[in-house]
Amino acid sequence: MVVSNSDIIIDKCLRLKNQGVVAGKRYWHDLVAYNYRMTNLCAAIGVAQLERVDKIIKRKRDIAEIYRSELAGLPMQVHKESNGTFHSYWLTSIILDQEFEVHRDGLMTFLENNDIESRPFFYPAHTLPMYEHLAEKTAFPLSNSYSHRGINLPSWPGLCDDQVKEICNCIKNYFNCI
């Protein structure tokens, strides 16, 4: 689902969902595109979520702030908002300090053993098979480093503050044990 107030973006999206067909010229495709269509059910869910988007984003921002506050002082960076931006916190992320990189998987296992789901960062695009021919695996050292040190923490808007603090306490316990 795309929401925009830009006619240019909407027109481009319509063309992309319509296999790149040029309006007014039947079966003429001037860009690579696919037959992307959203079902009515998916559209209805999207519209319903848009009606709640402000509430969802506020809660996700509140959760991120709890993580930032509770995890302060640990050997990590908590995903933060840059000046002049407004972060929706689709994911709340931590990046372990470099000297603790070897502990990422251990921390994730520790969380899992305490019934807390976490996810590693995505692999850098340039390391994926379909793109690896475009760049050396070492061409982007920051993205490589972040992908090895990053963890996405639970941030579902339905988490209560106490649950987020419990996750933080579990992370603190891990660092107290290593």
TrEMBL record:
Entry-linked Gene3D superfamilies: Aspartate Aminotransferase, domain 1 (3.90.1150.10), Type I PLP-dependent aspartate aminotransferase-like (Major domain) (3.40.640.10)
* Keyword annotations from UniProtKB, A to Z: Aminotransferase, Pyridoxal phosphate, Transferase
- Class of the enzyme per the UniProt entry, highest EC level: transferase
**InterPro entries on file:** DegT/StrS_aminotransferase, PyrdxlP-dep_Trfase, PyrdxlP-dep_Trfase_major, PyrdxlP-dep_Trfase_small
MF terms in GO = pyridoxal phosphate binding; UDP-4-amino-4-deoxy-L-arabinose aminotransferase
Spell out the SUPFAM superfamilies in the cross-references: PLP-dependent transferases
EC number, as in UniProt: 2.6.1.87
Q: Which GO terms describe its biological process?
A: polysaccharide biosynthetic process
Q: Where does the source fall among the domains of life?
A: Bacteria
Record-stated family = Belongs to the DegT/DnrJ/EryC1 family.
What name does UniProt use for this protein? Perosamine synthase
Organism the protein comes from: Vibrio cholerae
Top-level taxonomy: Bacteria, Pseudomonadati, Pseudomonadota, Gammaproteobacteria, Vibrionales
